[in-house]
Design brief:
Structural class of chain A: mainly beta
Largest sheet of chain A: 9 strands, antiparallel
Number of domains of chain B: 1
CATH class of chain B: Mainly Beta
Order of helices and strands of chain B: EEEEEEHEEEE
Strand content of chain B: over 45%
Radius of gyration of chain B: 18 Å
Distance between the termini of chain A: 21 Å
Strand content of chain A: over 45%
Shape of chain B: elongated
Radius of gyration of chain A: 18 Å
Number of strands of chain B: 10
Shape of chain A: elongated
CATH topology of chain A: Pnp Oxidase, Chain A
Structural class of chain B: mainly beta
Number of helices of chain A: 1
CATH topology of chain B: Elongation Factor Tu (Ef-tu), domain 3
Order of helices and strands of chain A: EEEEEHEEEE
CATH architecture of chain A: Roll
Helix content of chain B: 10-25%
Number of strands of chain A: 9
Number of helices of chain B: 1
Distance between the termini of chain B: 25 Å
CATH class of chain A: Mainly Beta
Helix content of chain A: under 10%
CATH architecture of chain B: Beta Barrel
Oligomer: heterodimer
Largest interface: A-B, 17 and 19 residues
Chain lengths: 144, 122
């Protein structure tokens, strides 16, 4: 899943301006494959360990306080509003409890700097999906 | 697909059978017996190891299977083990049920395991 030009982005208690995109990557951390005596192909496969990674890309005229305040290993709530398509209104609220695993800065152009924040989304109990995506219209008043 | 007593392992998950060393059992010269020559102890017992994965759609269902296999291994249960191509090994005793690692919770609930069968006093 890729969310382009999200709005109202916050990481922890800090607003995070200049976010160009938030990409969600889901990968298997462990894969089970089991075989039988009947042939060479697996008859069973499952993914008992799954990793949801968020990649937040920002572009700013100059480094802000968020550049300095985000540290590896920080456990922070990420929240933002996004659209299903580039032309649609920002009708989704996406949130996740995250642990920061990477903060990279680079030069985007002569006038802008870029920052990429990578984080692992953590589940509340191991069973719940660590990423929550809600339609904004279903949220209680004031929660947007 | 293997079966043993009332267990149709095909319904419990994927599994494979491995036949242990066949032939004679012996003691090398100057071993525990102290004899200066190889001591032929007799024909080796037939040992078959079943490795596999128990698969269930719910965790209670998986635990029910675990408990049935545990009970069979503790009896111990003696029966004919039938292999995937219909080979039958009679008078096999289920000696041990060993879970291999934690329960995996993905799309299904599953547990890797090993069963050890021995034809005792063969």
């Amino acid at each position: 899943m890729l969310y382009l030009h999200p709005t109202s982005v916050t990481l922890g208690s800090t607003p995070l301006p200049g976010v160009e995109s938030v990409a969600v990557a889901r990968k298997a951390k462990a894969v089970i494959t089991d075989f039988t005596d009947d042939g060479p192909h697996p008859t069973f496969a499952d993914v008992p360990e799954r990793l949801t990674t968020l990649i937040i890309k920002r572009q700013l005229p100059e480094p802000d306080d968020a550049f300095a305040s985000i540290a590896l290993g920080d456990e922070l709530d990420l929240a933002f509003r996004a659209a299903r398509t580039p032309d649609a209104p920002h009708a989704l609220r996406v949130s996740a409890r995250t642990v920061i695993t990477g903060v990279e800065s680079s030069v985007a152009s002569e006038r802008e700097c870029a920052q990429t924040i990578t984080a692992v989304a953590v589940s509340t109990d191991g069973d719940e999906d660590p990423l929550t995506v809600e339609p904004v219209s279903t949220l209680p008043a004031g929660a947007n | 697909m293997a079966s043993f007593h009332t267990f149709n392992f095909n319904t419990l998950g994927p599994h494979r059978l491995t036949i242990g060393g066949l032939g004679r059992a012996w003691e090398w010269p100057y071993g525990n017996s102290g004899l200066p020559f190889t001591d032929d102890l007799g024909r080796r017992e037939l040992v078959i190891t079943q490795t596999g994965r128990l698969v269930a759609s719910t965790e209670p269902a998986l635990w029910a299977t675990i408990n049935v296999l545990r009970a069979a291994a503790e009896l111990p249960r003696n029966a004919t083990l039938v292999g995937p191509a219909g080979q039958a090994w009679s008078d096999m005793t289920l000696m041990r049920f060993t879970p291999q690692g934690p329960i995996d919770r993905g799309r299904t609930f599953s547990l890797a395991y090993t069963l050890l069968y021995i034809r005792i006093n063969d």
